[in-house]
Every structure is written in structure tokens, then in C-alpha cells.
Amino acid sequence: MLDDDEYRRVTLLWPAIERGNNLQEPFAAMLAEYKRITGFRETNPNAVFHHRLSAYGPPCRFCSKPMRTPQAKVCGSCMKPVGDARSPTDGQ
User: Fold this and answer.
1) Does residue 12 lie in a domain region?
2) 24 and 32 in contact (C-beta within 8 Å)?
3) How do residues 45-73 score in pLDDT, each as one tens digit?
4) Do the domain assignments include residue 92?
């Protein structure tokens, strides 16, 4: 995942694509910067746009997965409400 500054640095390398180009070639600089930051060799340029931390909410206090949006009311993984007053140790 990328913080906002890292995301900006990577996406500034998003190329202006001309018709007929090999799709991997114009994205080489963007994908290289992503690998330099994360250590992960991504091959799909579109995947980079899903790895921005600020696009997700905080971790769920029940399952620790990130909320799908900062405005989420329910965890998309465990379906627990964000405002649930019970804690995971209450046996529920």
C-alpha cells in the first residue's frame, strides 16, 4: 500500500499513451517506482490505483482488515458494524 506522497510520486509517472504502443513499455517507469517503494514487482499498471492507503478506512477492530472506504459503516470482511459497542472479547 502507498501513502499519499508515495502514490503521487508513482502516478506522476503515468504516461500519455499513444495508440499502437506496447502497454507494458509506457508504464515501465511507473511500475519501477512502485517496486522501488514497495519491493513488490507489480505487472498490472491498473493495480497501482487500488493501493492507496487513504482510499481505505481504518482497520476493523474485530478482524483487523481495512474498511473498504473511510466512510464505511460496516466491515466488508466480517460484516460487523463500525459503531458496534461490543468488543471482540465480549464473547459475541
Assistant:
1) yes
2) no
3) 888 888 888 889 999 999 999 999 999 99
4) no
